[in-house]
Amino acid sequence: MILPEFLNEFELIHQTGKDNFEEVKAESEVVIDKELSKYYHPYPFLNEDELANAYFSADLIISRAGAGSIFEIAAMGKPSILIPLANSAQNHQVKNAYVYAEHGSAMIIEEANFTPHFFLERVKYLFDNPDKMDNMALKAKEFSTPESAKIIAEYLVSYLTQK
To answer: Is 138 helix (H, G, I), strand (E, B) or coil?
Structure first.
């Protein structure tokens, strides 16, 4: 298992999902020694405030590539590694990830290429290249449209009130 090797260099906030939490927690307790356990923070689910705090605290976000996740990452202006869900409906996560990454805001690791050592090397690469991380953060922020809901609402009101 690569988790101990990962925790030798990085601290990890891990949202496991409710269904996987107990299994992931039990496995982590077996493979992580007590000294490293302080760097691993598994949660079944993060509520809105907890997720905002996790995003704020993170130097790098590793996520699936749902539209909501991508827009949250962009709004926070964080560099990311996206791992699109291979069997998402109409392959939307892969499409989302590549559109977002075209802006220079994210690195993509497709599930077919996702191995623990490859993943760890990609994370190390990013942290060894702070200029790359800074540029990804800048590009993420540029991708973000924080006033989008207001713009859409104004458009709809204007359209619906035309005579």
So the answer is: helix
